[in-house]
Amino acid sequence: MTAGATGGRRPPRPRPGGLWRWHLWAGLAALLVLLASAISGGVLVYQKELIRLTVTPHATLPPDYSHGAIASQLQQLEFQRGAGSPISLKAPNPGEPYWTVRHGHALELLELATLDTYQDNLGILALLTLLREFHVDLLTGRWGQSLLLLCGILALFLTVSGLLLWWPGRRAFRWRWVIPRNYTASRSLQYHRHAGALVSPLLLLAFLTGSVMLWQKLVAPLLPPVATEIRQIAAMPAGVPGIARDYRAAQAAVPDGWPTYIRTYQEQDSTYTKVRFRLPGEWHLNGRTSVVVNSDTGELVISERSDQSSNARRLVNQLYPLHSGYGMPGGYRALMLVTSLALAWLAYTGGSHYYTRWRHRRNRRHSSAA
């Protein structure tokens, strides 16, 4: 039949059945996990700001806050919690001007001046902590991480296959289909296709960085272990006990770094203190340079400095900032929020389209049976 015989309109182009079906079933398989990840991830983009507004509204980092003050407060914290007790801390910084103490999955925030616990709106802090744990492992540990990795791989396939399905009709792209004024379920596929095509670069970035991080954790690292240097401290700093002494030794090994995570642990009948540092100008606000101090022998294991790493390792080190937006410029973080909202919208419109088709099929079967 010619175009003239159909009133000048071309017959609809058939969908590529195989790819379209794979896209459909992959979307249904990952739908709930992707929707939950989108919602939780969108909130977590601004979790630090939410904490500052609700829990620590008046917290500031004193201009003269120094390594000496950190060591002194570490000594106080160790005394409060009992010498020899494992401790996991995040040190204050300009963006988070308070001590963060981790107890399992719970967080405790401490004022700098008094080391007292912040008491306001702790329910919001607990909710944000829960959302983070849910986003990282679905509250089920390794099983949840494995499911997230699987769904991340499916999401990469969905993004690429969706672009391939949209490409033949790309000239029909219209902005009004991206965010419709009046939602109509029957047009959910149009909303899904146009919005997906528009945000596909952001989705690819989010899915790829998240999947690679999980792959490294669950399957195999992309790069060999970080090179380390072992040093022996001839004389540990006198007059400073425990974790504060270890911190002074670690800080001396990375004099231009600012501490991020500080924790103590026991292994093979020895006690260790691990300090992670952020170097000047480093993208990753948590830093990627660490020092492990053997509290019993004074031996230091110093990792390769992140500013001296290969380009490949530097790229791998930026996976977390690129995925979460943590420490990135405001514009980039806004794009990450848009990505989360778009993913939730795509999950909803894709699910709505499938449900509409299923309902129509069921109604036709019932009509035929009658």
Report on the structure:
Residues 1-9 have low confidence and may be disordered. It is built from 10 helices and 8 strands. It is elongated and about 90 Å long. The two termini are 35 Å apart. The protein folds into 2 domains: 34-55 and 120-225 and 323-354, no CATH class; 69-113 and 227-308, no CATH class. α1 runs antiparallel to α4, α1 (17-44) crosses α5 (142-166) and α5 crosses α6. It is 51% helix and 13% strand. It is α+β, with helices and mostly antiparallel strands and 370 residues long. Strands 3-2-1-5-6-7-8-4 form an 8-stranded antiparallel β-sheet, with helices on both faces.
Give a short overview:
With 370 residues, the chain is of the alpha+beta class. It is 51% helix and 13% strand.
Identify the notable features of this structure and list them briefly.
disordered N terminus, 13% strand, 8-stranded antiparallel β-sheet, 370 residues
Query: What distance lies between the first and last C-alpha atoms, to the nearest angstrom?
Result: 35 Å
Principal-axis shape: elongated
Helix amount:
40-55%
Averaging pLDDT over every residue, what do you get? 90
What's the number of domains? 2
Structural class: alpha+beta
Major β-sheet annotation: 8 strands, antiparallel
Q: Provide a count of the helices.
A: 10
Quantity of strands, as a count: 8
Radius of gyration of CA atoms, rounded to a whole number = 26 Å
Spatial strand order of the main sheet: 3-2-1-5-6-7-8-4
Model regions low in confidence, pLDDT < 50 over at least 5 residues = 1-9
H and E string: HHHEEEHHHEHEEEEHHH
Portion of residues in beta strands equals: 5-15%
